[in-house]
């Protein structure tokens, strides 16, 4: 994967939307690959300020999620991007949101989420380091 003309890897902020009481994760369909599932994520923008703000913005734009970042999970570097993962405790879901016509969303348990996003190794790895992962 290329850096698309960038000299440094892209900074990607990823939300792990959680319904704690139910022990569920909200996953969304990929726009580029509609049959595949992902976590809400996207590039950090200077207007975001903090990386956590970018994760909140992406969760709202891509999944209609409102909530609070409760935990930094990990940073995962790849050749083209550096992923920063944050747990987001979901307070509410909007019925209409920016990308609602382009994406599906679904609450699933942890194991199902890992399975569905495993095609994207960085996302699965980030989720596996979250507080939802079974204790070893």
UniProtKB/TrEMBL annotation:
PROSITE patterns the record matches: NUDIX
Chain segments annotated as coiled-coil in the UniProt record: none
GO cellular component: cytoplasm; nucleus
One Pfam assignment: NUDIX
Gene Ontology biological process: adenosine 5'-(hexahydrogen pentaphosphate) catabolic process; diadenosine hexaphosphate catabolic process; diadenosine pentaphosphate catabolic process; diphosphoinositol polyphosphate metabolic process
Cofactor: Mg(2+)
Superkingdom of this protein's organism: Eukaryota
GO molecular function, one term: metal ion binding
SUPFAM superfamilies: Nudix
UniProt keyword list: Hydrolase, Magnesium, Metal-binding
Entries under InterPro entries matching the protein: DDP-like_NUDIX (IPR047198), NUDIX_hydrolase-like_dom_sf (IPR015797), NUDIX_hydrolase_dom (IPR000086)
Residue ranges annotated for the Nudix hydrolase domain, each copy included: 9-129
Identification of the protein by name: Nudix hydrolase domain-containing protein
